[in-house]
Amino acid sequence: MGVAPVALRLYGKRDQTRSDDLGLVAKYLEWQTAAAGSQAMKELEQFLLDRAMEHDSPTLLFDLAREYLMAAKVIRPGVFILAKMVGMGRKGASDLTSQLVGHLLAAEVCADLERMPVVDAGLGMTRLEWLVSPARDASATSGEDRDRQADLVARDRRPPDGCVGAAERAAPVPGPGRAPFDQPGAGAAQGA
Questions:
Q1: Are residues 113 and 91 part of one domain?
Q2: Domain count, the chain
Q3: Contact call for residues 127 and 115 (beta carbons, < 8 A)
Q4: Of 51, 76, 102, which residue constitutes the final position of a domain?
Q5: Are residues 51 and 83 in the same domain?
Q6: Which residues constitute the domain of residue 80?
Q7: Domain for residue 127, yes or no?
Q8: Residue after which a domain boundary falls, among 56, 72, 102
Q9: Could you tell me if residue 3 is inside a domain?
Q10: Is the pTM of this model over 0.85?
Q11: Which ranges of the chain does DSSP label H, i.e. alpha helix?
């Protein structure tokens, strides 16, 4: 470095040494500071809102913000400020989600959702537990699956594509050269 060892003993005794050197190093590495209200901070706020729409974990959002700032070569603001920005991003995402789906929550749907965690006497458990619990035995499986699907259809919530009940899973799938079972002559020997 070309500095006498005696000079290093005095390093840091001056109040502005650290901040002066930090500014010089940042300038050399082409990093920038981000003042409150600056364009960089507004971009970080938007980034956090966008990520909070995807993820709700404050720790993950904090880490993503830190990585974003490193990629943008922006010196991270204080931990407290960044944590506060993460909280604001999460609140903004919650408000935006409510705004986007609010029209879907009709009174009947809200009432159905309110009843989900309440124990249903006929089932002996909550509707939510019933919808996510596996069938208890093979004889009840197809009936329970049909009941679940009927319940979902009645609520106008269809299972995701590719989800089938036990009856559909148990039905053999026609292979190459085999006729589907619902066609005339299905199951009979072909060409005999």
A1: no
A2: 2
A3: yes
A4: 102
A5: yes
A6: 12-102
A7: yes
A8: 102
A9: no
A10: no
A11: 5-9, 17-29, 39-54, 58-71, 79-101, 107-115, 127-132, 138-154, 166-170
Give me 26's structure tokens: 């940042």
- Whose structure tokens read 């005095």? 10
Q: Say yes or no: 62 and 137 in one domain.
A: no
Judged by DSSP in three states, 135 sits in coil
Per-residue pLDDT of the chain (192 residues; tens, 9 = 90+): 677 777 777 766 776 777 788 888 888 888 888 888 889 899 999 999 999 999 989 999 999 999 999 999 998 888 999 999 999 999 999 999 989 988 888 888 888 888 888 998 888 889 888 888 887 665 555 566 667 666 766 665 544 444 544 444 444 444 444 444 444 444 444 444
Read off the amino acid at residue 93: A
d(CA 172, CA 163): 16
CB proximity list for 165: less than 8 A, separation 6 or greater: 142, 145, 146, 148, 149
Residue 68 lies in a domain: yes
Is 187 part of a structural domain of the chain?
A: no
CA atoms within 13 A on the CB side of 100: 7
Q: How far apart are the first and last CA of the chain?
A: 95
Q: Cβ(40)–Cβ(34) under 8 Å? A: yes
